[in-house]
Amino acid sequence: SDGRGASPPNPRPGSTRRRVNFYGKVIMVILGIDPAIRTTGYGVIRTDSLSHLEILDCGVIANSPKLPHSECLRRLAGGIRELVQAFHPDYASIEEPFMGRNASTAIILGMARGGILTALVESGVPTYAYSPKTAKRAAVGTGMATKEQIAILLAAELGIEIERIPLDSTDALALAICHAQLAMRPTLAEKMGKPL
Questions:
Q1: Contact call for residues 191 and 182 (beta carbons, < 8 A)
Q2: Is the four-CA dihedral 57, 135, 95, 40 of positive or negative sign?
Q3: Which residues contact 54 (CB under 8 A, 6 or more apart)?
Q4: Nearby residues of 88 by Cβ (< 8 Å), 6 or more positions away
Q5: Is 195's pLDDT higher than 90?
Q6: 13 or 150, higher pLDDT
Q7: What is the pTM of this model?
Q8: For the segment 14-70, what is each residue's pLDDT rounded down to a tens digit?
Q9: What does the alpha-carbon distance between residue 42 and residue 102 come to, in Å, rounded to a whole number?
Q10: Positions of E strands within the chain
Q11: Phi, psi for 147 (deg, rounded to 5)
């Protein structure tokens, strides 16, 4: 509820039932995820229009460097499930994979992404992928923004303390905002592509 009246209970993730606020506007909750095996950033936003957005939560799912990859994957999947249960996102957005020079790093990142996607699919959350540049451009106007710049701009725009935005969650917030920008504009919906 936005404090001005009761809103219906959150629909099950992936359901076709839409949430609406007191004024009849469609409400979207989006979970953005910046995957990594040791430090996965996440950001959860709620929006009912292009001009009204709020951060519900943001942070990091952290894994110790001492943990084996298998335990990191279990913890990542568990963390994503907890976020889905807590916030019932309508959609998730995740960073597109990129091919770096280091094949080993790409394989490890692929494992992390796979564990995250599995948890999202099991929870029925449609997931879309965007490049880091596309997400940053949608969130703050430039695809070359640093994590610090994203945090400063989002804090100023949303009227929150910058300390509430961990740097490792900024790319995830940009991914969530990017999806909201496209999903709220029917003319741009085709740019979302198909869910993963």
A1: yes
A2: negative
A3: 45, 46, 47, 158
A4: 10, 11, 12, 13, 29
A5: no
A6: 150
A7: 0.85
A8: 444 466 665 667 789 999 999 999 999 999 999 988 778 899 999 999 999 999 999
A9: 25
A10: 19-20, 26-34, 39-49, 52-62, 91-95, 127-130
A11: -60, -40
Is the confidence at residue 177, as pLDDT, over 90?
Answer: yes
As to burial, measured by CB atoms within 10 angstroms (0-12 exposed, 13-18 middle, 19+ buried), residue 96 is middle
CB atoms within 10 A of CB 106: 14
Which pLDDT value is given to residue 50? 75
For helices 170-183 and 147-158, the axis angle rounded to 10 degrees is 60
Please report the DSSP string for 88-105 in residue order.
Answer: --SEEEEEPP---S-HHH
Residues 6+ apart with CB under 8 A from 96: 129, 130, 131, 132
Q: Is the Cβ–Cβ distance between 172 and 43 less than 8 Å? A: yes
Residue with tokens 């085709």: 190
Which tokens sit at 153? 């701009």
User: Which residues are the active-site residues?
Assistant: 34, 95, 168
**What Rg value do the Cα atoms of the chain yield, rounded?**
16
Burial class for 117, CB neighbours closer than 10 Å (0-12, 13-18, 19+): buried
Taking alpha carbons only, the member of 101, 106, 108, 92 closest to residue 33 is: 92
Structure token digits, residue 166: 């961990």
Do the beta carbons of residue 89 and residue 31 sit within 8 Å? yes
